[in-house]
From TrEMBL:
This is Glutamine--fructose-6-phosphate aminotransferase [isomerizing]. The chain holds residues 257 to 628 of 628 of the full protein. It catalyses: D-fructose 6-phosphate + L-glutamine = D-glucosamine 6-phosphate + L-glutamate. GO terms for molecular function: carbohydrate derivative binding; glutamine-fructose-6-phosphate transaminase (isomerizing) activity. GO terms for cellular component: cytosol. It is an enzyme of class 2 (transferase). It comes from Winogradskya consettensis. It is found in: Cytoplasm.
Length: 372
């Protein structure tokens, strides 16, 4: 009913709007006054976590995209090798695991069969399994050695939105916690990231107040025959996520690429007017990355692409290459997906609605996939 949807046309729109609160709730109680990470509810001892020499992250769909972002954060902060893999592929390739492997499984529902089977496989190999899950008491956390719950609240729409951003937060917390107890990051470095994380709910609230342009753009793009998404570094999983949302909701052809891979093939797809959504990294810090994406934008534009550019506030130069510019609040590079993914959720939702689809219940899909 309309009341259940809190006045929104779709649960998905309601859940998109709930994201700032979902992030705040997931941070709640996990940060100390001093600004370090407290994960008391994770039933793995500090010694267990110090013994870890390799991390595997395994998940499906949107949760897998959160895992891809986590890989960048964990390797950068913790300095241990981290692999991320689709649950449906994981156990069939005979992965190498042992008791010093930390396996992180990410699942909103906690019931995804592919993820559960990967978890069981990892346990048979004696790996320690930590679940990131949004559903209390579901099968995946029950079978794991430890769990960090995301506090997104119930997600009704088939398309995952608030679960995704809270999964990112959980991954950041785990990465910082590992870095802290292993002594790889100084307390003040952890505190600096934590203080930026604490600001993300407000940053996102502000971003959500100015999405009118994205809605307008959606009406314009509803007849496109394809939409391509490009990004680098953590912007790459965001590009994949933007494309997945569009496929599942709007039933349109969409594809996400690592921007640097374009010249190895996909750039041949670009034709006059092809919409390309470009996720631009922050110009601060690793400016190199940002400059590389800007040159990729110029390349697609030179071939006729219509560019929809998602960039950070203050990145003034990028406007010159954008047919449509969407500015997001400034964040440290690794946290940027908490901002950049959100306009893409809205874009997909609005394109789907403009095409007359049932946004909350897309065809052929189930909220939780309990078959392999
Ligand atoms: C995302 O919008 C999807 N509907 C889907 O990819 C989902 O993320 C995937 O099935 C994994 O589900 P889980 O997080 O409940 O395990």
């Amino acid at each position: 009913s309309a009341a259940e949807k809190g006045g929104y046309d779709y649960f998905m729109l309601k859940e998109i709007a709930e994201q700032p609160q979902a992030i705040a709730d997931t941070l709640l109680g996990r940060l100390s006054e001093r600004g370090d990470i407290v994960l008391d509810e994770v039933r793995l001892t500090d010694q267990d976590l110090r013994d870890v020499d390799k991390v595997f992250i395994v998940a499906c769909g949107t949760s897998y995209h959160a895992g891809m972002v986590a890989k960048y954060a964990i390797e950068h902060w913790v300095r241990i090798p981290c692999e991320v893999e689709l649950a449906s592929e994981f156990r069939y390739r005979d992965p190498i695991l042992d008791r010093s492997t930390l396996m992180i499984v990410i699942s909103q529902s906690g019931e995804t069969m592919d993820t559960l089977m990967a978890l069981r496989h990892a346990k048979e190999q004696k790996a320690r399994v930590l679940a990131i899950c949004n559903t209390n008491g579901s099968t995946i956390p029950r079978e794991s050695d430890a769990v960090l719950y995301t506090h997104g609240g119930p997600e009704i729409a088939v398309a995952s939105t608030k679960a995704f951003v809270t999964q990112l937060v959980a991954c950041y917390l785990i990465g910082l916690h590992l870095a802290q107890i292993r002594g790889v990051m100084y307390a003040d470095e952890v505190a600096a990231v934590v203080s930026r994380l604490r600001r993300t709910p407000d940053n996102l609230r502000e971003l959500l107040t100015r999405m009118e342009d994205v809605r307008e753009l959606a009406r314009d793009l509803k007849t496109a025959s394809t939409i391509l998404f490009i990004g680098r570094h953590v912007g790459f999983p965001v590009a994949l996520e933007g494309a997945l949302k569009l496929k599942e909701l709007a039933y349109m052809h969409a594809e996400g690429f690592a921007a640097g891979e374009l010249k190895h093939g996909p750039i041949a797809l670009i034709d006059e007017g092809t919409p390309v959504v470009c996720v631009v990294p922050s110009p601060a810090g690793r400016g190199v990355l940002r400059d590389k994406v800007v040159s990729n934008i110029q390349e697609v534009r030179a071939r006729g692409a219509r560019t929809i550019v998602i960039a950070e506030e203050g990145d003034d130069e990028v406007a010159a290459y954008a047919d449509h510019l969407i500015l997001v609040p400034r964040t440290p590079t690794l946290l940027a997906p908490l901002m950049t993914a959100v306009p893409l959720q809205i874009l997909a939702c609005e394109i789907a609605a403009a095409r007359g689809h049932d946004v909350d219940q897309p065809r052929n899909l189930a909220k939780s996939v309990t078959v392999e």
